[in-house]
Amino acid sequence: MTQLTRDELLTKQELAIEKVDMGEGTFVYVKEMTGRDRDRYERSLMTEVKDGDGNTTGYERSLEDFRAKLAVFTTCDETGKLLFKPSDYSVLSQNIGAFRLERIVNKAQELNLISEADKEALIKNSEGGQAASSTSDSAES
To answer: What is the CB-side half-sphere exposure of residue 64 using CA atoms within 13 A?
Structure first.
Protein backbone atom coordinates (compact mmCIF):
# COMPACT_ATOMS: atom_id res chain seq x y z
CA MET A 1 0.00 0.00 0.00
CA THR A 2 1.41 3.41 -1.02
CA GLN A 3 0.62 6.75 0.58
CA LEU A 4 -0.70 9.34 -1.86
CA THR A 5 1.23 12.60 -2.15
CA ARG A 6 -0.21 16.10 -2.11
CA ASP A 7 0.24 16.40 -5.89
CA GLU A 8 -1.47 13.06 -6.49
CA LEU A 9 -4.44 14.11 -4.35
CA LEU A 10 -4.71 17.46 -6.15
CA THR A 11 -4.63 15.88 -9.61
CA LYS A 12 -8.07 15.71 -11.22
CA GLN A 13 -9.41 12.23 -10.68
CA GLU A 14 -11.24 10.33 -13.41
CA LEU A 15 -14.73 9.82 -12.00
CA ALA A 16 -16.78 6.69 -12.56
CA ILE A 17 -19.58 6.94 -15.14
CA GLU A 18 -22.04 4.09 -15.56
CA LYS A 19 -24.89 3.41 -17.96
CA VAL A 20 -28.30 2.88 -16.36
CA ASP A 21 -31.04 0.94 -18.16
CA MET A 22 -34.22 3.01 -18.06
CA GLY A 23 -36.42 0.39 -19.71
CA GLU A 24 -38.05 0.37 -23.13
CA GLY A 25 -34.65 0.36 -24.84
CA THR A 26 -33.52 3.66 -23.24
CA PHE A 27 -30.66 4.53 -20.91
CA VAL A 28 -28.89 7.39 -19.17
CA TYR A 29 -25.42 7.78 -17.70
CA VAL A 30 -24.89 8.47 -14.01
CA LYS A 31 -21.59 9.65 -12.56
CA GLU A 32 -19.66 9.86 -9.37
CA MET A 33 -19.72 13.36 -7.85
CA THR A 34 -16.66 15.40 -6.97
CA GLY A 35 -16.31 16.50 -3.36
CA ARG A 36 -17.58 19.94 -4.36
CA ASP A 37 -20.61 18.48 -6.17
CA ARG A 38 -21.45 16.34 -3.12
CA ASP A 39 -21.27 19.43 -0.89
CA ARG A 40 -23.52 21.35 -3.28
CA TYR A 41 -26.00 18.47 -3.41
CA GLU A 42 -26.12 18.25 0.39
CA ARG A 43 -26.46 22.04 0.66
CA SER A 44 -29.42 21.89 -1.76
CA LEU A 45 -31.22 19.79 0.86
CA MET A 46 -31.06 22.60 3.42
CA THR A 47 -33.83 25.15 3.94
CA GLU A 48 -33.78 28.34 5.97
CA VAL A 49 -35.56 28.45 9.31
CA LYS A 50 -37.05 31.88 10.02
CA ASP A 51 -38.46 33.39 13.17
CA GLY A 52 -41.77 35.26 13.40
CA ASP A 53 -40.12 38.43 12.09
CA GLY A 54 -38.76 36.70 8.99
CA ASN A 55 -35.15 36.63 10.22
CA THR A 56 -33.09 33.55 9.43
CA THR A 57 -32.34 31.64 12.62
CA GLY A 58 -30.68 28.60 11.11
CA TYR A 59 -31.06 25.80 8.61
CA GLU A 60 -32.69 22.38 8.57
CA ARG A 61 -32.68 19.46 6.17
CA SER A 62 -35.61 19.09 3.80
CA LEU A 63 -36.39 15.87 1.94
CA GLU A 64 -38.49 17.67 -0.66
CA ASP A 65 -37.32 16.53 -4.12
CA PHE A 66 -34.17 14.92 -2.70
CA ARG A 67 -34.27 12.15 -5.31
CA ALA A 68 -34.64 14.59 -8.21
CA LYS A 69 -31.85 16.74 -6.76
CA LEU A 70 -29.54 13.73 -6.63
CA ALA A 71 -30.45 12.89 -10.24
CA VAL A 72 -29.69 16.48 -11.29
CA PHE A 73 -26.22 16.31 -9.72
CA THR A 74 -25.34 12.92 -11.25
CA THR A 75 -27.13 12.36 -14.60
CA CYS A 76 -24.68 13.02 -17.41
CA ASP A 77 -23.64 12.21 -20.96
CA GLU A 78 -20.99 9.58 -21.77
CA THR A 79 -18.21 12.14 -21.15
CA GLY A 80 -19.48 13.10 -17.68
CA LYS A 81 -21.05 16.44 -18.63
CA LEU A 82 -24.15 16.97 -16.50
CA LEU A 83 -27.45 17.01 -18.40
CA PHE A 84 -29.30 19.24 -15.95
CA LYS A 85 -28.88 22.62 -14.28
CA PRO A 86 -29.42 22.68 -10.50
CA SER A 87 -32.67 24.59 -11.05
CA ASP A 88 -34.10 21.70 -13.15
CA TYR A 89 -34.85 19.50 -10.13
CA SER A 90 -38.45 20.68 -9.63
CA VAL A 91 -39.48 20.10 -13.26
CA LEU A 92 -37.68 16.75 -13.29
CA SER A 93 -39.42 15.68 -10.09
CA GLN A 94 -42.83 16.57 -11.51
CA ASN A 95 -42.31 14.92 -14.91
CA ILE A 96 -40.28 11.73 -14.44
CA GLY A 97 -41.90 8.52 -13.27
CA ALA A 98 -40.89 7.21 -9.86
CA PHE A 99 -39.60 3.96 -11.39
CA ARG A 100 -37.17 5.75 -13.71
CA LEU A 101 -36.11 8.26 -11.06
CA GLU A 102 -35.42 5.44 -8.61
CA ARG A 103 -33.17 3.69 -11.14
CA ILE A 104 -31.06 6.84 -11.47
CA VAL A 105 -31.01 7.41 -7.72
CA ASN A 106 -30.01 3.82 -6.92
CA LYS A 107 -26.99 4.03 -9.23
CA ALA A 108 -26.07 7.52 -7.95
CA GLN A 109 -26.19 6.27 -4.36
CA GLU A 110 -24.00 3.30 -5.25
CA LEU A 111 -21.38 5.41 -7.07
CA ASN A 112 -21.31 8.12 -4.39
CA LEU A 113 -21.43 5.87 -1.33
CA ILE A 114 -24.72 7.29 -0.10
CA SER A 115 -25.76 4.55 2.30
CA GLU A 116 -29.04 3.58 3.91
CA ALA A 117 -27.65 5.14 7.10
CA ASP A 118 -27.14 8.44 5.23
CA LYS A 119 -30.74 8.34 3.98
CA GLU A 120 -32.03 7.50 7.47
CA ALA A 121 -30.05 10.44 8.89
CA LEU A 122 -31.67 12.74 6.32
CA ILE A 123 -35.11 11.49 7.32
CA LYS A 124 -34.36 11.74 11.04
CA ASN A 125 -33.00 15.28 10.73
CA SER A 126 -35.92 16.32 8.53
CA GLU A 127 -38.57 14.87 10.84
CA GLY A 128 -36.87 16.23 13.94
CA GLY A 129 -36.89 19.76 12.58
CA GLN A 130 -33.41 20.28 13.94
CA ALA A 131 -32.03 23.69 13.09
CA ALA A 132 -28.31 24.20 12.82
CA SER A 133 -26.21 27.19 12.06
CA SER A 134 -24.35 27.27 8.78
CA THR A 135 -20.89 28.50 7.98
CA SER A 136 -21.61 28.77 4.26
CA ASP A 137 -22.55 31.97 2.50
CA SER A 138 -25.82 30.57 1.18
CA ALA A 139 -28.02 27.51 1.47
CA GLU A 140 -29.06 27.80 -2.18
CA SER A 141 -27.60 25.93 -5.12
So the answer is: 7
